Structures are given as C-alpha cells and as structure tokens.
Amino acid sequence: MPEIFPVNQQPNAARVAVVATGIVSPLGFGLDETLVALREGRDCVSPVTRFPVEHCRCKTAGQVSDARLTGAGKPRLRSERLHRVAQMMILALGEALAQAPDFQPELGVVGTTSGGMTFGEEYYRGLKGGETSMRRAASLIANYTPQKPVMDAQEAFGLSAPCQVIANACASGTNAIGHAFDCIRSGRYQRILTGGYDALSEMVFVGFDALQASTPERCRPFDRERTGLVLGEGAAILLLENFDSAQTRGAKIMAEIIGYGVSTDNHHLTQPNPSGSGPRQAMEGALQSARISARKIDYINAHGTATPLNDAAEGKAIAELFDGVAVSSTKGMMGHSLGAAGAIEAVISILALQNQFLPGNINFRGGDAGLDLNIIANRSQPGNLRTVLSNSFGFGGTNASVIIRMIEA
Amino acid sequence: MSLGIAGMGWVTPLGSDLSGVWQRLLNGERASVQSISSPLGPAYPVFPVPAERAPAHPRLRRSSAISRFAVVAGLAALEDAKLKLDAETAARTALIFAVSSGGVIYTKRFYHEILESGAQAASPLLFPETVFNAPASHMAAILGITGASYTLVGDGAVGILALKMAEDLMESETLDRCLVVGAEETDWLLCDAYRRWRLVRAAPPIEPFKQPPRGTILSEGAGAVLLNRTGSVQLEKIAAGTNFRKQSEAGDSVEKIFTELCEGEIDLIVASANGTFIDAAERTAVLRSCASAKVYALKGALGESIGASSLWQTICGAQALRTQLVPPDLLLREEKGAHFSTGRRSEDRLRRAVISVCGLNQQVAGLRLVSN
Q: CB of A227 within 8 Å of any CB in chain B?
C-alpha cells in the first residue's frame, strides 16, 4: 500500500466546517428519518410511477414522495410553478437553515445533472401534441433550466448568493462540495452553500436503460453478479464555513471537510478506464489535499453504482490504495440520484461519523473474485469512525472524492 | 487575484478567426440571418455558424455541434497563446465549460424518438451526447487534460461565473492556467421556447437599447479564454453577481454589479443588451454608474448565444484593449448622457473595460479588464 504524503499545501490554509445539513431522498425527509433508514438498511427502491416504463428493461427507482413535497416554498414562492426538485431543495435548505438561521452564504456551489428536466419534457410533449398555445409554456421554460431549483430555494429563504451550478454528471454533487471546500480553504470565502439535486425524468431514465446501465433486477453494488444501477432522486445541502469563524460565533460544527481530489478520465465518454486510474487519482488527490495517509481512512462511502464496469474500476482502485478499509455503497437502498448523489452521500457520511456506524451495502451476496474489499454487507454495523472518504464518478470521466472528519466532542 | 488573458478563440456567426472576426466587427458588419423551419409551422431567424473546421478526432465522430464549436474555440485559444499542451502542461491546466441549453439538438432528437417509437427504440449512442458535460469531456480528451474539468450551467451570466470559478481554481499552486470555454447551439425548439417567453423577435435586426424592446435573435458558437497569471490584458475584478427575482428587478441587480466594477475610470462597457428587458436595466446602470464610458453592444452583430455570449463579450473587450479600437454600433444613436459607440477609433487610450452581463433567467455578473 503506497503512502501518501502532503504536497503543495499552504501551511496556513483555512479549515472548513460543516455547520448544517439538510436532506430529502427516498430514504426520508430530513436527517432523522434518513438515519433510521440507514441503520435499518431499508430498501427504498420501488416501481416507477411517474412515467411509463413498460418498454424499459428497468422498472424501478428510488422515489421521493410527492405528497410530502406539496406546499414547499410557501409563502414566498408559489409552489405550483416550482419544479418538484426545487421543492426538495427548499425542504433541504430549510432543514439546514433551521440549524444555522443566521447563515448568509457569499456563494452557492451546487451540483445537478438535469435540474427541472421534466418541465422540458412536458413542454415538448405539449408541442408535439399540438398544444401550440400552451398556457403553461413560459413557466415551464423558465423553470426547467438546471440552475433554477437552487435559485428558487434561495429565494424561498430570502437569500441571493451568486450560484455556480456544476453539471459534471454523476460527480456533480461531490465536485460542488469539493470546490466549495477549496474556496473556503483558500481564504477567499467564509461561508458557502453547497450540495446537489436531481429528480427522476423520463428522458434520463430511458437513457440509462438504453445504455443497459440500469438493471431489471435488484441493485447490488460490488456484488459479483451485479447487473446495473437503479436511478434515484433527491436533494442535499451542506452549509460550509471557515472553521475559526464558526467556532468564534459559537456555531455547532457537525464535521470538518479536510480533503478534495479530482480527476478526468479520458478513456471513454461513458465508461471508466478498467485500470481504475481515474478513481485512484481522485482518491490520491483527496488524501494529498487532506495531508493524511490512506491508513487514516476508516470508511469509504463508495460511488458503487452496481454497474459491472464502475464497481470493478472503483473496487480495483480502493483495493490498491487502501488496506482492508470498510466500504459500502448506499445506492442499493435509494438508487443513484446522479447530481444529488455526492451531496446525499456526504450527508450520509456525516451521519455515519456522528452516530459511529457503518452504513450497509444491501443486496450483497459476494464480491468479485480476486478483488479484496471489506464490504459492509447488507446490514449497518457499529463502527469506530474518525475519517471518511466519499466517492463520486460520472459520465465524461469526471471523478471526485472528498474526505470528512468528525469533530471530537 | 488578478488573472491575465494568455489566449483567446471564438467560433461565431461571423467566422472563427480571432482577428478576422474582429476586423469584420470593426467594419460594422453584422452576422447574416438564416431562417430555420420548425415542424410546428413558424420559421425562426437565427445567426448560425458558417462551417467550422473541427479537428478529425474519434471523440468528435458523433458529437453534437456544440462540442465541435467548443473544441475549435478552445484549440484556437491555445494557438493564440502559442501553447501546445503536453502531458506535463496539461496536468497543470484546468478546464471550465460554460453552457446554458447544451446539446439541445440531440436532446430533442433523443426524447422525440422515445415519444415516437417508445423507450425500446431509444438510441444508446445519442444519450451520452445529451449530457451537459459531454463537450467538456471531448475537449479534455482531445487536449489531454486529466485534472480538474468542470461544466457550469446557468443563463447568459454563466460565462462570467465560469471565469470567477477559474479565478478561484487558480488560487491553487498546482495550476498554471485555466481554459474557460462557453458554447451554445441553436435549434428551432430553443427559438420556440424563447418566443413563448416573449424574448425573441420575428425578424432582424437586434436593436440593443431601443425602447420598447422588440426582442432578440438567437445565435450559436463558442468563446474560449485561456487564463494564466500574466498576460497584457488582465481580469482585474470579477463580480460573481447576484440574482434578480423578476424582470422588473433586474435593474437593481445590474446596478449592484456596476457599483462594484466601476471604480476609477472606465473607458468601455461591452454590454449584454440584446433587444429584451435587460437593455433598460443595463442602460439605467450605465447612466448612473459609468456615464462617461463608451458603450458597445456586441449582440447587435453576433446575436444572443446565451452560454457563449459572455465569453464573446470578454474577448471583444480584450480585443478593444489590445487594439485600442472599438467597433461601431451602427444602429445606436448618441443619446443624452450615454455614449454608444459610433466609431472605430477611440480618441483617448482605452485602458479599462467592463463586461456587463444580465442573463435572461435571473443571473447577473460582470468583470473588469485592464490593459497594462
């Protein structure tokens, strides 16, 4: 196992605190429900109801309940014009701001892959169906754009920070958290709102189905008989602040982000280099950024989509870099929420640190031959965690890893 | 931190040669409009890109127009900087791609096939090209970039937000340069959408700053700026901007940006005025904060290209500082208190230029260039 040593780090770099989080996912609304579902290893994947899937191989996804989204955004915004992913963002941001009511971000850095895409689909279906004078057209067009949900969420709480909306496919959420971390660490910013969001859409669902990346069976990350991913949706917010500033004002600090690594794998638009070089470079970069060795990582929340190629490449990189570290993918429980995944999994990592447990990798029967990974099979386990690494990798060869450390009581 | 512009490249409806397009702008030329028909009946005017010369590369075999525009502009910026990336220099180069609507042609085609023929007929070849970061992935593969690559989405301000992100990234000593590329492609579907939003007009010209606003015309292409820590034209200040809730509040947001950027003497403002509500917002801000500056509205010549436009404006501002020339706004008249550009040659030295961007969907940003 190679040692990782610090490089190119400014000795006086600022520390970065997570002062609040919020989450909406198929696992539940809010941190408490999410924690319960994680501990139980609950399978929250269900038959797709939002659009027709009879001609798709895959017919399931992790879905957020519409009934519980209704009403998000009031009273500042008219909820009927909001996309449901904007409503998820409003709920997630609301939960975070309840923990840090005075938080005024200087910048927003969030990830998504398709924003309010279903509004675009509805608009196109209307056109195709001959509804040339659609009354809702202007609203659909204005609200389908990918940046809109985070702007709506800010507006709902009277915030108006400029937003950098990263669309790095499935790595978007982790890229957003990582870039926000770098921005505060450099001393250029004190407070940044970060996170990610995505909602299920027919086009994206069919796209993954056409690529045969999604599975007609259960999602089994790292299982030797895995057959693909299931999609999910959700939103998660992390409020990051300069550690000293947060401490000075007496803020409750949930965790500390200590490292971020990024890489671009030019092997193929949709397939990782089988060598695992892309994930490995991202994880090495995160370790270097954190100035820690691989031995200091207690748990990896893997990207673990359950596609044969992704898990093989990620697993190879983990096995080469780490020595028996606990690994699980939480996507078997809730599906792959694309641009939201990195943010949701960062929040899950923080919950794991705060509650000292290892989330389970459900639907697991046995790993790849010759790949020695310490998978937390099927059930969550008590853990002794201090430092966690979370991975996200995406189409276009985007790879990102962040490292999160617990705050000692 | 101040960044320098090391190289620039663009793909525009007036061509893809940096100095050639600049000369045409100085001559007062405007892009030729073409009509694209829609299956719904109406035809829409757009400013298309004349055939561009994308490199022969396996990654571009099936790629969309937007990817080709981005690659051509990016390579041109590197060539302008006389830089050929090798493994060592590529490792110290970051890539940021800015986009608004993205690969709309393939996206529409992919979804249309789903609706027409069912999910079982959906093309696995098309889908990956619909993803927002597909152009960035192709660029990274062609340039050999293996480190940081980001795709940013937003409205017309996204290019400035990308330059701001570059400024943040360049805080890292592990980077020597950052290539920022903005791109967009046109399609009847986009034209229809912006028409329903009451933002496009039925026929040219675009008449920036004319009241009441008559609407804009969409265009396509890409703009690329290679940033390093030197360079004769510097990005002196970037205002990451703010958001406005509704169109009637855009003026306040633009004014905030001008207040931030218009410190000291500003010689030139390259405005984002495009014949829509944003013109009045910009005009008021110019008159209140920067009335002595000469104003040039590039979109009258090149159209509104959303993701590419603010990079085009930045290139235009840098070219004005480099050449000490400003293109004429042939349709603008001198009016009380504002100095819209009417001539090629400036009487005084051009030293500082502000790039002002008010997007169509709530985002506002800007930057200030200075010539050393």
A: no
